[in-house]
Design brief:
872 residues; Nucleotidyltransferase, domain 5; Rossmann fold; 6-stranded mixed sheet; globular
């Protein structure tokens, strides 16, 4: 069984999975019915353990099997001991004690290696990999299962001594099927859907060729669930595009999602039919649970009702276990109109949902599983809250928290119930208790943030629905007592500081969600921002988009703060979209500044008098959501652009900003450029950038001792070699590139047509000189944010972090390369002036282009170039 239970069983996260199990149930172990006198006692204990396991008494099974291991004479029956260790590992998995499970799998693996049983080594490695997958450690799982050879190696071209290679060497098709199924699952959960499909298709062909019918349903379900994830990602991008006004692209994505969903439906229904033919209740349950959300999305209520009825029958046939409890919880939640965490089951179905949640709770009690009990109780609390019975909701939620505390590894569920507690207190009007509960939820999240956002690709995509609301709801609570007032330096609002701290934590979590397992985001030890603001005449303006309205908090150079509100977040988003559309119409004879002026009135005008009084010269924006796509330099007050009055920069998070000023001595650059047309390996074509040689020469002239790699010389291999020879404080990249909605879609194009992701670029930079200082600056003058996906601005926001640089110059969209060359020349001229910081150097270049007049004065040409990160 290498199919997971649907991971939204209880608001997503680390529900224990039912991935591939090599043995479909525990039977009396081979040889124990006719054992010698020396092993008769452990044989009896083993059989007692099997009986306890099959009745759902996993704790008793563990006691019997541990006693059996202790009863074996030293050096006798190593193979039988290994089998007992395997059973102990499975029992510990059932009760969620994964460290113990891994310990016994490793012992069993070592025993089988000692016996020279390659097939059994393969099986136990696969089982170990499944445990790591359930912990979200997908790379480690893949390394145990296959470890593909070389960066471009086939997923099935595996290193020696991995599960798949050992099964192949032993000519063991069952072991190969097991390893392929688990490998496909690991790739899917890592978000590598293309590789997952390849592996699972290979596995399906294998089981069909060898008649391994017991694995066919699981392979089909794995393929179906992979296509579900592809469809969900396409639907989400379509919705994002539609909200940004890019209707044609949204329609294309919608059609793509429907095709992927149809493919998922085909595979899942085939898997269901195979499970029925084999009378495999477990596989049939998993197929129905995967099909239910598809039926709901397609409004196929008759099929959904049939699946629920059948699930009710099947769950009653399954032995009591954590997986059966989770299946009952999933069935209860399937009555919600959509899978979002906070949606309520309609009143007509609430009694049925409650029945299944109570059954899940009863199973959890029977098998002494606090973790499963926690999810059942928490969902009962949510159901009571939906009914308006807040006292009962409070009681169930508190019980869920207690059960989570009893479980050994339930921190990932603890924050869910703390959040739910906060919502209940807020509904009761108990603001202080609500605030405390939300703060506890955030504190719990901060401890596990990297783990869950690295591990869970599904959570990365669903972040805005399942994690971000906790931060935003807390911020709303923190800001509620505050009005749109200026606060004196000595009476800085505690609530504003708390809200800014929460907002910064949210931005770290968003970036971690975006980058996932490819990067760990951690705060940088830094100087206090108020000290930096005072010394550089900088005002920092942070935006926080809440469901109804948007908060703006300005921190001025003297440390005073001011809060202002944009009263309609929806209207703000529409205005931003309109602004971007108008701004990029660079062929219009004149710029239509109506949206720009409205945004200026909302975002800047409330602070104008304080900005003038404080002597501010630089504005740094810590933007939220759709505001990340706004080139603030182009905001217009009716007479002047913002850039004509202030230097402008943006940073994704103040705690991720290294505030050390530019090291001005010995500034040398590595300039990378592509001036020719190019087609990448995946068929994407890019036009020539004919002014790139001029741009590169400017860099070489401005910074003596610099080096250039142009066109064919600019390759992944040559770049790595050059960086290994000596460090460069500046990296100038004049080539096509993109900031996409997924880190894999965030790349630059080399002169060899390679797509070099920013993760790969960071590894080249850090790998060549691991002890060197970070890059001072990376300039990306021809990259753009991907059209139709607001997640792509997260890639832009984090570009300096991802490239291992203190700051970056990047572009929101592709601009005329002649204007780019002019801006680059002006920027680097200003950069070597000690009296200008990076933001002011770019300001001087942009003001020069505006003053020159002509086509280049249109903001479409100069506004998209922005400073990201350290602006000093």
């Amino acid at each position: 069984m290498f199919q997971r239970w649907p991971r939204r069983t209880a608001a997503l996260l680390f529900l224990s999975s039912l991935i591939l199990t090599l043995w479909l149930g525990l039977a009396p172990l081979p040889g124990f019915s006719q054992v010698s006198r020396s092993t008769a006692v452990p044989g009896q204990l083993v059989q007692s353990g099997v009986a306890a396991y099959q009745s759902g008494d996993y704790a008793m099974a563990i006691r019997h099997w541990q006693a059996a291991l202790a009863a074996f004479p030293v050096g006798i029956a190593l193979a039988e001991q290994a089998t007992v260790q395997e059973n102990l590992a499975r029992a510990y998995q059932q009760i969620g004690q994964t460290p113990e499970a891994l310990n016994y799998w490793e012992k069993a693996t070592a025993a089988h290696r000692q016996l020279g049983n390659l097939a059994q080594v393969s099986h136990t490695l696969t089982e170990q990999a499944q445990v790591y997958t359930s912990l979200g450690q997908h790379r480690r799982a893949i390394a145990l299962l296959c470890l593909p050879q070389g960066e471009a190696g086939s997923a099935m071209d595996c290193a020696a001594n991995t599960a798949l290679s050992l099964a192949q060497a032993a000519a063991d098709p069952v072991g190969q099927a097991a390893a392929l199924g688990s490998l496909g699952e690991a790739y899917r959960l890592r978000g590598d859907y293309e590789q997952a499909l390849k592996v699972l298709q290979t596995g399906l062909a294998l089981v069909q060729a060898h008649g391994l019918d017991q694995y066919q349903a699981s392979m089909l379900s794995g393929l179906g669930n992979t296509y579900i994830r592809l469809a969900q990602a396409s639907y989400r991008r379509a919705a994002s595009s539609e909200s940004l006004g890019i209707i044609e692209f949204a329609q294309t994505l919608q059609a793509q999602a429907q095709a992927q969903e149809a493919q998922a439906l085909t595979y899942l229904q085939q898997g269901l039919e195979v499970a029925r033919q084999r009378q495999d209740a477990g596989a049939e349950v998993r197929s129905h649970l995967s099909l239910l959300p598809l039926y709901q999305r397609q409004q196929r209520s008759a099929e959904a009702d049939t699946s629920r009825q059948r699930l009710g029958q099947l769950i009653g046939q399954l032995p009591p276990s954590r997986e059966t409890a989770y299946a009952a919880i999933t069935l209860a939640k399937s009555y919600q109109p959509s899978r979002a965490t906070l949606n309520c089951v309609p009143g007509v179905h609430q009694a049925e949902a409650q029945r299944w949640l109570e059954q899940a709770q009863a199973i959890a009690i029977r098998i002494d599983d606090d973790r499963a009990a926690s999810f059942a109780l928490g969902e009962l609390g949510h159901l009571s809250q939906c009914r308006g019975d807040l006292p009962t909701a409070l009681s169930f939620t508190q019980q869920a928290l207690w059960a989570a505390d009893q479980a050994l590894v339930s921190t990932d569920s603890t924050y869910l119930w703390q959040w739910q507690l906060g919502r209940i207190y807020r509904a009761q009007g108990q603001q202080a208790q609500a605030l405390a509960a939300y703060q506890e939820a955030i504190a719990t999240l901060e401890v596990i943030r990297n783990d869950i956002l690295i591990a869970d690709q599904e959570l990365q995509f669903d972040f805005r629905d399942t994690v971000a609301p906790i931060y935003r709801e807390l911020i709303a609570l923190q800001l509620e007592p505050e009005g749109a007032i200026a606060l004196p330096k000595q009476a800085t609002s505690v609530n504003l500081e708390a809200a800014l701290t929460t907002a910064d934590s949210l931005k770290l979590a968003e970036l971690q969600s975006y980058f996932g397992s490819d990067c760990v985001i951690a705060p940088i030890s830094q100087t206090r921002v108020d000290q930096v603001s005072a010394s550089s005449a900088t005002t920092v303006i942070s935006s926080i988009i809440l469901p109804e309205r948007t908060a703006l908090i300005a921190r001025f150079p003297d440390g005073s703060q001011q809060l202002a509100w944009v009263d309609d977040s929806s209207l703000l988003q529409k205005t931003v979209v309109d602004f971007r559309i108008r701004l990029q119409r660079y062929r219009d004879p004149a710029f239509d500044s109506s949206s720009s002026q409205q945004l200026y009135a909302w975002l800047i005008q409330p602070f104008e008098s304080a900005l003038q009084a404080s002597g501010t010269t630089t504005l740094v924006f810590v933007q939220d959501g759709v505001l990340r796509s706004v080139p603030m330099a182009a905001l217009y007050d009716g007479q002047h652009y913002l850039i004509e009055r202030y230097a402008v920069a943006t940073t994704p998070s103040l705690t991720l900003t290294d505030f050390r000023p530019l090291r001005e001595e010995n500034l040398q650059a590595l300039a990378l450029g592509l001036s020719q047309s190019i087609t990448t390996a995946d068929g994407q074509s890019f036009i020539p950038l004919r002014n790139v040689p001029t741009e590169i020469n400017t860099v070489l002239t401005q910074f003596p001792g610099s080096q250039a790699l142009l066109n064919g010389e600019f390759s992944r291999e040559r770049l790595g070699q050059t960086l290994a020879q000596r460090p460069f404080p500046l990296l100038h990249v004049a080539t096509h590139g993109q900031f996409g909605g997924d880190p894999k879609d965030t790349f630059i194009v080399t002169g060899k047509g390679e797509k070099l992701t920013f993760g790969e670029l960071e590894r080249l930079i850090r790998g060549s000189s691991p002890n060197a200082e970070p890059l001072e600056l990376i300039s990306l003058t021809a990259c753009e944010t991907a059209v139709g996906d607001d997640r792509s601005t997260l890639g832009l926001a984090g570009v300096a972090i991802r490239a291992g640089a203190r700051s970056a110059i990047a572009s929101l969209w592709t601009i005329d390369d002649a204007t780019t060359a002019q801006l680059v020349s002006g920027f680097y001229t200003g950069l070597i002036k000690p009296e200008l910081n990076k933001a002011q150097a770019l300001q001087a270049a942009q003001k020069a282009v505006i003053a020159a007049g002509g086509d280049g004065a249109h903001p479409a040409y100069w506004a998209p170039l922005i400073v990201v990160g350290n602006w000093l």
